[in-house]
Design goal:
heterodimer, A: three-stranded antiparallel beta sheet, 9 strands, about 10% strand, B: five-stranded mixed beta sheet, elongated
Chain lengths: ~625, ~130
């Protein structure tokens, strides 16, 4: 029963998604149809379940809503298919992986010499490519399996947020009341419930809260992300570049570990990748308007917004990019059709999200704590900008690579890139580039204006934010560096100079040693702790200074009213200081800080002095 | 052009070798044996089956949680793991009158009487159900 239920819960969405993709994009290759179908099917069932949960506050009715949505999607797709309404994909430019792009005879490809820069050289024969791909794929699968076993109950966020909420949904009589209980106010209650909905659905099918369900979902989303990247690149990029990019993606240990940890970051990354891949493919052939692809993109983009708050930002930037393109590129009718299709695809997710945010979700804690007068002062503070840039520099190894590939990738791009020939001056990569650049700018601003300690905020989150975008960044990289288009010669252009400068900066960053916190205290002296305040209330900030610890990442054990509460992590700045903001959900009482240990050690060391603070 | 071709080729080779090395390093970092064996978490879930059944019958799903005999380096993750296992029951740290109290005897794993609390039931594995007068 357990196995049957688990199988049903896993197979339903990909099957429904396959039909939907086939209806929306009949000419899609099989691999792309399967890859996108996984994402689309999970988007439909998860969002419908989420909506049912919001409307009925019952897991059974939510399950009914989710499965009904899947059946409706299959039914509507079959009706559409049986009427024979195929997409008007121009037959002379039918894009399948094996078909080469047509060349314009007035600009014969330099290809015989220029294209042989790197990718098609003798170093890069199909045999070498196949060997590298198989080797990396094997190692990646093994690594993922081991990581999955180590994290079979999920990482920290899965324990206190995603899977815990799924438990309340699946087992509580009033899930929404349990999820928004004041006991959990400190764990981002404003995050949407798409992932917990999917996990809960799986547990309902399996009739037990088995860890196999979240593990299976984590595996499905991770593999789907990689498969979408690979399949999408086969249309917009040359085959050798596809192989190189896939190898780079598979050889990102941070991505595989993040996927195995059952976090929502890989889920949102999957939908971001799917959306940007769809639009890159859509813009790759700008001959005729098509409603199917924008509809699919709207569906996946809105689901990203239903997964984490970053998805809302992504949806807004994506919409802005498409509106800009509508003004600049397409005829009015085509633009309106595209935007209408996008809106209809996104409608289910946006409606669900609006209900959640308006009826249930509290205000985001970052927004709540940031007062207007402090935002401006933080924006003009040069020290904060320096800290942010330093934090970004230290996060360039977000993939947890033993050897960072970014400098080599940048040098390769600088040497080999030549602008592709497009019918319009805006290429098919505009949407992806606009959205990714916009997200980077937005994250930077959030770090600056956030009331939390900037260094610890960056350290605890930037890696995951970059990993969310990593597959999409690779698609963008490949579409720019190795597009499936004829190229025109260019001796030296501003683009090559910019890429060279970026490459030089990345190399400099990679070889420049990270700042080392000076250690002025001998090893055997007990650490000393100082607090800037003795009493605080909600909204106050206090500073903690710890002297005598090596390393910046530490854990501190504490008690409240003499009850041992466990430990919390802190990232000490170069001066040993870390600032904390007291949130409204912080339990009141007398906090005593007892002992400290470095993140990579097991030995706890008592502070040489007593330190306490009262939260009133 | 020839120079670019050679340099590009070496760069590609470098990226491939680097990627294989990174994949291998990730594999080495995570590799362990055996896999999928029963862990401490699963054992704890098994020990708490009876406790979860009893606590699920309480009229109020909010329950105060206390520890007895915990060291100062008690892992906060253990608390959240317990909360996860006992969900939909909601553990609370703050004291409230006339509420049930779940006490975990961390070091002895043996339930014993406590001052100011009325003993109700031994839930096994060092967990006891009490009530505030």
């Amino acid at each position: 029963m357990l196995i049957l239920g688990a199988t049903l819960f896993l197979m339903g969405p990909p099957i429904a998604g396959w039909f939907v993709v086939k209806r929306a994009w009949p000419e899609a290759s099989n691999d792309l149809r399967i890859a996108l179908g996984n994402a689309v099917g999970l988007a439909i069932v998860g969002t419908a379940y989420f909506l049912g949960l919001l409307l009925f506050d019952s897991s059974r009715l939510a399950l009914l809503a989710g499965e009904s949505a899947l059946l409706c999607a299959i039914g509507a797709s079959l009706c559409g298919l049986s009427r024979g309404r195929a997409e008007d994909w121009p037959k002379d430019r039918k894009l399948i992986a094996s078909a080469p792009a047509k060349h314009d005879e007035s600009h014969p490809p330099i290809s015989s010499s220029a294209i042989k820069v790197g990718l098609d050289s003798r170093f890069f024969s199909p045999g070498v490519r196949a060997f590298a791909l198989i080797a990396v794929l094997t190692l990646a699968m093994a690594e993922f399996l081991f990581a999955l076993d180590s994290l079979r109950h999920g990482g920290w966020d899965a324990l206190v947020m995603w899977n815990l909420r799924a438990r309340f949904i699946a087992e509580s009589n009033s899930p929404m009341r349990a999820i928004f209980d004041r006991s959990f106010l400190g764990f981002h209650p404003d995050y949407p419930l798409f992932l917990p909905s999917l996990v809960s659905r799986g547990w309902q099918y399996a009739r037990s809260a088995t860890p196999a369900v979240p593990m299976a979902l984590a595996s499905l989303f991770t593999m789907t992300t990689i498969f979408i990247t690979f399949s999408g690149l086969r249309i917009v990029s040359r085959r050798p570049q596809v192989c190189l990019t896939t190898v780079l993606l598979l050889a990102t240990p941070g991505l595989l570990t993040l996927g195995a940890s059952q976090y929502a970051d890989v889920v949102i990354g999957c939908f971001i990748t799917a959306t940007l891949a769809i639009y890159t493919i859509h813009d790759f052939n700008d001959k005729s308007p098509r409603a199917g692809l924008p509809f699919l993109a709207g569906l996946t983009a809105a689901t990203a917004a239903c997964t984490k708050n970053e998805g809302i930002l992504f949806l807004v930037l994506l919409t802005a990019a498409r509106v800009i393109l509508a003004f600049l590129r397409r005829p009015a009718l085509g633009s309106r059709l595209e935007l209408l299709a996008f809106t209809s695809g996104a409608s289910l997710g946006v409606i669900t999200l609006c209900i959640f945010k308006l009826a249930y979700s509290p205000v985001n804690d970052t927004l709540q704590l940031a007062a207007n007068q402090t935002i401006f002062s933080r924006l003009i503070d040069p020290n904060l900008h320096l800290q942010a840039l330093n934090g970004i520099r230290n996060s360039l190894n977000f993939g947890q690579w033993r050897l960072n590939p970014l400098p080599l990738m940048a040098i390769y791009a600088a040497i080999t890139w030549t602008p592709a020939r497009h019918s319009k001056w805006i290429g098919p990569s505009f949407t992806a580039a606009f959205v990714i650049a916009g997200l980077f700018c937005a994250y930077y601003l959030v770090y600056i204006v956030s009331p939390y300690d900037l260094e610890s905020h960056v350290v605890s989150s930037l890696d995951r934010l970059l990993l969310q975008l990593w597959p999409a960044m690779l698609i963008l990289y490949s579409a720019i560096v190795g597009p499936r288009m004829p190229e025109k010669p260019q001796r030296l252009g501003i683009g090559r100079i910019v890429l060279s400068a970026v490459a030089a900066a990345l190399i400099t960053i990679a070889v420049w040693p990270e700042e080392d916190k000076p250690s002025s205290v001998a090893d055997r002296i007990k650490p000393h702790i100082e607090l800037s305040r003795a009493e605080v209330t909600a909204g106050d900030t206090y500073e903690m200074k710890i002297v005598g610890m090596r390393g910046s990442q530490v854990y501190i054990s504490y008690s409240v009213d003499d009850n041992h509460m466990g430990q919390f992590g802190a990232y000490l700045g170069t001066d040993g200081c870390v600032a904390f903001q007291v949130s409204p959900s912080t339990p009141k009482g007398i906090y005593r800080f007892l002992a400290v240990k470095a993140a990579d050690e097991t030995l706890w060391i008592k502070f040489e002095n007593d330190a306490s603070i009262t939260v009133k | 052009m020839e120079i670019r071709s050679h340099v590009g080729g070496y760069l590609i080779a470098g990226i491939f070798v680097l990627s294989i090395w990174n994949a291998y390093a990730g594999f080495r970092q995570n590799a362990h044996w055996p896999i999928f064996k029963e862990d401490e978490w699963t054992q704890l879930e098994r020990h708490l089956v009876y406790a979860k059944r009893v606590l699920g019958q309480l009229p109020d799903q909010h329950i105060e949680y206390r520890m007895e005999g915990a060291s100062e380096a008690y892992n906060a993750g253990d608390y959240h793991r317990l909360q996860y296992i006992l969900a939909p029951l909601i553990l609370q740290r703050d004291i409230a009158d006339n509420r049930c109290v779940l006490v975990e005897f961390c070091s002895t794993r043996t339930v014993s009487p406590l001052q100011n609390l009325i003993f109700l039931k031994d839930l096994g594995y060092g967990f006891g159900l009490y009530r505030r007068p």
